[in-house]
């Protein structure tokens, strides 16, 4: 039985953003804290605006007890309309998917979110009229197709003050100068040029205003087929080899057109491929990687493993966890994508060969592979501003269909989590080589959440042309000066400085300038001879010996399994394997080439993103956060000793260690920190509070305050 408390006495009103309008609301709604059969929960008001669905209880009015990692735009009980995945109603204990017009209204509303949160709202004690209004309102505003102009993005941009620039150090790639600077940075300006041919979008609405092509490609060639068949430059390697992409010609054509296009392509290829000096390898990603439909199917299966309704369901699936995980095929897709990126890196790095990635529009898998290759080969892309600039260059300006792929308007049949696939692949690298990245996994998680926050234009258009035409139209309509959208890269909009500290990696191995004696020994930038101390996790000699002596044995015993993961049909198997093994047998240079480990269980589930709302999956005082906390303590100790030894050099020691104060009391932190803080009410302590007190009295081991997890508040 649910104990019916008195409804909230004081009026709790939602905090509305500029341009946000309250559409409907219902009082005396009961939100289950955790659907575990205990029916524990809290009463409050459920509201729907043109931006979000929000649950307001009496705690919402007070700022006490707020987590320090708090999003200023989306609260813990807020769901943006774009973040709603599916809505179910419970009728007589049966779940039914809610879409369109409803004849009967449910007694419980279950909302599954794209960031994997699950909300249960009991409407049994709500007035019937309010139930009708709130349920039909939520279903209508979050599930039915809408026009682009109806997105909250436009309401917010016209009402919000334009006082943030938001560029920071991120290169936006919306000017010719940005492209020229990138060419200069990568030394690509010898063979490539930035062109203005598409100004006014006279070549194609899909291409950006400015882009880079080989020097010998003429303006006529670019105009001939609306930019199709033209190699567009992505990045240049230190040895001069370049990574290029190209949108392919349609496959179904008549013979004469096909012949003309083939002749055109042959001419283009000759401008890049000039053996023996300039070599070119083409790679059609539509045939060598999974299709978008495969990616969508795999992710749909995969996310179901984490949209857990209750504790019973969690333990029921836990028994079959590995077989369920394997059957989704999601980790296998990540492995295949990483393997493809390693193959491309080998061509550029070792074979000094230009690589041309080909895809129908060159805006999906081309973006994934080109971004991954740059993260692996260019240490600048592993800094925060460098990674953000990379996303701008390859995805936002590069013309990835964010609007369609994320299905923001609820009318796309082309939905596929392509950008999420990239973030999952980058996360594999971040967790395998933490010191190589200036940003943390929390940064990647928050970036994935920002896909569904429609106050930033970054992930809400299909192309630069679509954004520009809408910006111009709105500017003319409002006539209140230039109409400007926010960019997601201005993190101060979502987080205050204390919370932003969680996005930066305090253990990042910053690049040091080598002295002259070291420079002489390095043959080129990515030679892996300058290893940082304490980086070699496994003995390279043993590993090398094992590989050489038992390679044939392993291939005989596990041939098929290894073949599935490692060998690709279109190149000699040993070339890839030799490059991969050779690299992994040497110490890691965190500022050189990074190759992900892709054998067997090396590909992992991004626990922080996918498990953060499941209390049963949390380890108190454990996980990677506990290790990071210990290392930070050591670093702080070293820093204080250094300062005592030599006050003059104290400035040279990184002061960033103090920037993550919450990492200190690690015994009370969850493995899913900092997101586990948001679940503080539903966490059951591993030890009763009295046991903690006994430990504290007995020993100095646990001299830590109850700052993060409310252990006593949950005891029933």
Automatic annotation (TrEMBL):
<dbReference type="InterPro" id="IPR029021">
    <property type="entry name" value="Prot-tyrosine_phosphatase-like"/>
</dbReference>
<keyword id="KW-0963">Cytoplasm</keyword>
<dbReference type="InterPro" id="IPR011993">
    <property type="entry name" value="PH-like_dom_sf"/>
</dbReference>
<dbReference type="InterPro" id="IPR030564">
    <property type="entry name" value="Myotubularin"/>
</dbReference>
<comment type="similarity">
    <text>Belongs to the protein-tyrosine phosphatase family. Non-receptor class myotubularin subfamily.</text>
</comment>
<dbReference type="InterPro" id="IPR010569">
    <property type="entry name" value="Myotubularin-like_Pase_dom"/>
</dbReference>
<keyword id="KW-0703">Sarcoplasmic reticulum</keyword>
<dbReference type="InterPro" id="IPR022587">
    <property type="entry name" value="MTMR12-like_C"/>
</dbReference>
<dbReference type="GO" id="GO:0046856">
    <property type="term" value="P:phosphatidylinositol dephosphorylation"/>
</dbReference>
<dbReference type="GO" id="GO:0030017">
    <property type="term" value="C:sarcomere"/>
</dbReference>
<feature type="domain" description="Myotubularin phosphatase">
    <location>
        <begin position="173"/>
        <end position="610"/>
    </location>
</feature>
<dbReference type="GO" id="GO:0016020">
    <property type="term" value="C:membrane"/>
</dbReference>
<dbReference type="InterPro" id="IPR030576">
    <property type="entry name" value="MTMR12_PTP"/>
</dbReference>
<protein>
    <recommendedName>
        <fullName>Myotubularin-related protein 12</fullName>
    </recommendedName>
</protein>
<dbReference type="Pfam" id="PF06602">
    <property type="entry name" value="Myotub-related"/>
</dbReference>
<dbReference type="GO" id="GO:0016529">
    <property type="term" value="C:sarcoplasmic reticulum"/>
</dbReference>
<dbReference type="Pfam" id="PF12578">
    <property type="entry name" value="3-PAP"/>
</dbReference>
